Task: structure prediction
Amino acid sequence: MTLLECKNLTKKYGNYTALNDMSFQIDGGHIIGLLGPNGSGKTTLIKLIAGLLEPTAGAVYVKEEPIGPASKSVISYLPDHSYLNGNMRVQEIIDFFADFYEDFDSIRAYDMMAKLQINPRQKLKTLSKGTQEKVQLILVMSRHAALYILDEPLAGVDPAARDYILETILSNYDEDASLLISTHLISDIENILDEVIFIQDGRLHTQALVDELREQDHKSIDTIFREVFKC
Amino acid sequence: MPWNLDSDRPIFIQIIEKIQMDIISGLYAPGDKLPSVRELAQAASVNPNTMQKALSELERTGLVYSQRTSGRYITEDTAMIADLKSKLARDIVTQFLNNMQQLGIQQKEIISLICEINKGDGHDTVRM
Result:
């Protein structure tokens, strides 16, 4: 079943076209890498899907419904900036999420916090930047959503924790759910992807299965990316 | 990444090779039950769809078979496993010989090299 469909999606900021007539579909049960150079439109695309921006033209459908309260209840979104109140303790934020999202699993959240040795009694602002990012990712992955959208989930996290987080992602999404992950750390993550979307200058460049790209080019996705977007 | 996979070759092919190796080496005995797709995907740190594809391919070759509800098992056909083993051994030797040819080393030299290194490592001497 088509989980997400973007149809002729265009977004302009004044005269600047951030996304230009982009169309693609995502089915359930996949992990898709959203890859593109800085300023290619990744975050704009993600915000349109999350319902935080209105498209200038075109539309986004989640489970064949236009973006709205229904789509937001099945999308779990990790933004590229924190929006949480730093004065709250981690456990208060967990309660807040449990209150707000019907599909939030507090046990899963506490379990992951414990494995990453995050003390739930600490205030968010007293944690390091990387640890704050881990907290946010845990919150997002603790929902039983149909679509997880992660905007740069690994950027501030050390390599050892990255491995754990990838493992966490793999073990915590439901079989029919999909993940759309935007990142620059392609080599860290490419083995867990089964599909990639390359975007360039606001346009869809490639949508392909990763193993088919590897078979075709005998190169890693990281290398292919470097060649496609060579400066 | 515990399974040590290269990113420049299709992952599903490497998974097939790894499981074949585990069967040949006896880590999985004939008739053993394989872990679930999800468990294997987690152990390998790969996408479950990729693991699924690799297992389907192993099933197609007959090395693994699935029982409708209870999961996947290693074949009990020991002759098939022995065949695979000798095929892989031949592949490795062929590749080795190609490499030696590229270095311009003759067959006689190769054999004496093998004997020499074999002694040096304290292995049992190979009789040629």
User: Anything to note?
Assistant: Chain B touches chain A through 20 residues (CB under 8 Å). The first strand of chain B starts at residue 64 and ends at 67.
